[in-house]
Amino acid sequence: MSSNDPVITTYAQAPAKTIATDGKTFAYRELGPAEDIPVVFFVHLAATLDNWDPRIVDAIAATRHVITFDQLGVGASNGQVPDTLEEAADDAYTFITALGYDTIDVFSFSMGGMIAQDLLVKHPDLVRKLVLTGTGPRGGKNIDKVVGVTYYDILRATLTRSDPKEFLFFNRDQAGKQAGKAFVERLTERIVDRDQPISNKAFSRQLKAIQRYGRSTPADLSIITQPTLIANGDNDRMVPSALSEDLHQRINGSELIIYPNSGHGGIFQYWEQFAPVAAEFLAS
């Protein structure tokens, strides 16, 4: 995006783009004012470009250049989902450098936060600021149970004709149900150039990669000295909330926000509080 292009600050209007490098084609979108250091968004399990909450993206894109992208094998990107999240981090590095960036800020959620950590461990000078939401460290306790939790909630959603994210991301009390339906509704605001949904094969490969991540040797996160914002709900069933506290303890100087009476999607339930905090953190 050049400085002469009109500034787009609404995610629903961000143009769909692709970039090819080393035989790999990545689908992505960008919006917000042009700048040398963008905020790159790392998305969650089973997600495509259409799964980012526009209320959070738009708040950040009001002052920052935002880039979202599909991992290989997902949505409109080609190839196949890698076996490990380390390889997914390598793919992300390929994408970022293909766009010409040598420094970025990171906004990540869930699996995206795991990939972002792996990226930073391997390329510590690449990232200037880091936002980790709904995520946990490599080898974190009970991360490997995500497979059972995910399929159980998909079954519950199917039986009630609901979107699985309403069960996976939100508590099943009145507040959680309302927040879940509102979140899913916001994801439909874009009506043109929508992304391709993830395939069952790609979804299965992502789940196995997360399981391997949860069962592997912890990474040394003491190397993360960048300003870091960590956030989650207090009842995360997918990536246990205690792992956000674990990250906070292991990343020196990090800031931790835990939202009450909320689950994995706590930042989406409390978007009105979280979006300005995240935007200010990334703008300062």
Automatic annotation (TrEMBL):
Source organism of the structure: Microlunatus phosphovorus (strain ATCC 700054 / DSM 10555 / JCM 9379 / NBRC 101784 / NCIMB 13414 / VKM Ac-1990 / NM-1)
Protein name, UniProt field: Hydrolase
UniProt xrefs under Pfam families: Abhydrolase_1
Keyword Hydrolase (UniProt): yes
All residue ranges annotated as the AB hydrolase-1 domain in the record: 39-268
GO molecular-function term, one example from the UniProt record: hydrolase activity
Keyword Hydrolase (UniProt): yes
Alphabetically ordered keywords of this record: Hydrolase
